[in-house]
Specification:
Elements (H helix, E strand, L loop, with lengths): L2 H26 L3 E13 L2 E11 L6 E3 L2 E7 L2 E8 L2 E3 L4 E10 L9 E11 L2 E9 L3 H8 L3
Length: 149
């Protein structure tokens, strides 16, 4: 095989891997998140502490391994709590349950909208990718998060 054919194959291989890598990054950035459980641990005049369990769904063909993830609970565009999720791994085209704890410093009265947001750093092969997430819980879940009366 002459050197121009070898060079062409190498360029084609690199181009193919680049397209595959980008498509998997695009898929991983569409990771799905939902709340599967929320439980009030304790409450006082300063706020409340909750156990939470989130489900992460991986639509990519990559194994995504994450370290500790910090997230924020935002109600009516103001941060009312923050928490931390345990490290986890999501297999390709699969989902996993992730436990964590969060604290709120709001009584939650008359809250109109709640969202959970954060950035998860995933280690995939020889690189890391930071993927932001935003989850809008149902009205029932929002009531549990902010402990409305």
């Amino acid at each position: 095989m002459n050197s121009s054919k070898k060079g062409g194959l190498i360029v084609l291989f690199i181009l193919g891997m680049s397209i595959f890598g980008y498509s998997q990054y695009a898929s991983a950035s569409q990771i799905g998140i939902s709340v599967t459980q929320s439980e009030l641990l304790n409450e006082n005049e300063k706020g409340a502490e909750y156990n939470i369990e989130l489900q992460f769904e991986n639509p990519s063909l990559l194994i995504l391994t994450s370290g500790t993830t910090e997230f924020f609970v935002i109600a009516d565009e103001q941060m009312v709590g923050k928490g931390q999720l345990e490290p986890f791994t999501v297999q390709p085209l699969d989902s996993t349950q992730v436990k964590g704890i969060f604290h709120t410093d709001s009584d939650g009265k008359d809250v109109q909208s709640v969202k959970i947001t954060g950035v998860t750093k995933y280690d995939a092969f020889f690189t890391s990718i930071d993927i932001p997430f935003v989850y809008y819980p149902t009205e029932e879940q929002a009531i549990e998060f902010i402990h409305q009366d």
